[in-house]
Amino acid sequence: MLKGIGKGIKLLPGSPSTMFVPWEDGFIVIDPGSSEGRTADIRAQGKVKAVLLTHFHSDHVLAAKGLESELGTHAPIVEACGVESVGLRRAVTFGGYAPEGLIYHVKAVSVQVDHVFRHPFQLGPVETVPLPGHTYGQVGYVANRILYAADSFFGDKLLKSAVIPYYQDYGTALETLRWLREHARDFRKLVPSHGPVVEGKRAEELLDFNIGVMEELPDKVMTELASKPMTVEELTSKLLREGGGKVTVSSIILSAVTIRSLLARLYEESKVTAETGERGILWKLNM
User: Which residues, at least 6 apart from 101, have a Cβ–Cβ distance to it below 8 Å?
Assistant: First the structure.
């Protein structure tokens, strides 16, 4: 069931949610979502003028498979190869070939991209907003001052459950979060893919919570490394356990992306160093 969020713009709830922007005699559909059943749900709403993707993750692109639209599927240039290549999509997280079902719970399919674009890009009433960090080329889309913010920030329930949010580039993600916090009132509403639609003070509070989670991570990492050098997987597992998160093969693989990215930033700041040991690459705090 579509939910109106203002100015004719509607949302198909889910995780992720899908945004519908009216244009001419149909809709622009943003991030179709994570189940094949949503494809039929989207078709039922009327003519699809175009499909816009924010980034290449499977839960955002799966329902675009077989979804016919007048102007085709559009994706940012940095993300387009991952949309079309399941292998590349998995390799970005796993580091190489990964078997089906090891990392994600969502079925991975290849989706054809008809049009690749660079920011700035506009289609009808929709314009891009660069929101890198979760992935390197992620964009959001704004129409009538309602921003579909993709996975640049998350709902508080998801954050508490995940403990460590997934970001390919910790530093850039934090910059994006701070930019969103500074400009939150420039938008009527902000729509995170995985979280509630927020505006005004509530938007600022949720962004503050996201920023707080990210800003606490370096101290948590360095506190753990002060006790002994650790591998990325050991450190990630310990942080997940202490935060009350689920510790599974999938959660460690996904969360380790963020931790590895953070360690790289700390390495550049000469706060940690990497050395080899019997357990592999060990990260050590510079005392």
Answer: none
Q: Which two tokens stand for residue 108?
A: 């991975």
Tell me the fold of 3-152.
Metallo-beta-lactamase; Chain A (3.60.15)
User: Domain map of the chain by residue range?
Assistant: 3-152, 217-285
CA-wise closest residue to 44 among 62, 29, 59, 24: 29
CA 177/CA 172 separation, integer angstroms: 9
The pTM of this model reads: 0.97
Instruction: Put residue 200 in one of left, alpha, beta given phi > 0 → left and psi -120 to 50 → alpha.
Output: left
The Cα 237–Cα 76 span in angstroms is 33
Tokens found for residue 205: 């509070």
Q: What is the DSSP string of the chain?
A: --EEEETTEEEE-SSS-EEEEEETTEEEEE---S-THHHHHHHTTS-EEEEE-S---HHHHGGGTT---SS-EEEEHHHHHHHH-HHHHHHHHHSS---TTSS-SSPP-----SEEE-SS-EETTEEEEE--SSSTT-EEEEETTEEEEETSS--HHHHHHHSS---S-HHHHHHHHHHHHHHGGGSSEEEETTS--B-HHHHHHHHHHHHHHHHHHHHHHHHHHHHS-B-HHHHHHHHHHHTT----HHHHHHHHHHHHHHHHHHHHTTSEEEEEETTEEEEEE--
Provide the CATH number for the domain formed by 217-285 in this structure: 1.10.10
pLDDT band at 51 (very low <50, low <70, confident <90, very high): very high
253-276 pLDDT, tens digit each: 999 999 999 999 999 999 999 999
CA atoms in the 13 A half-sphere facing the CB of 141: 25
- Per the structure block, which two tokens stand in for 217? 């991570």
Q: Return the bridge partners of 147, or none.
A: 142, 190
Please tell me the distance from the alpha carbon of residue 63 to that of residue 192, in angstroms, as a whole number.
18
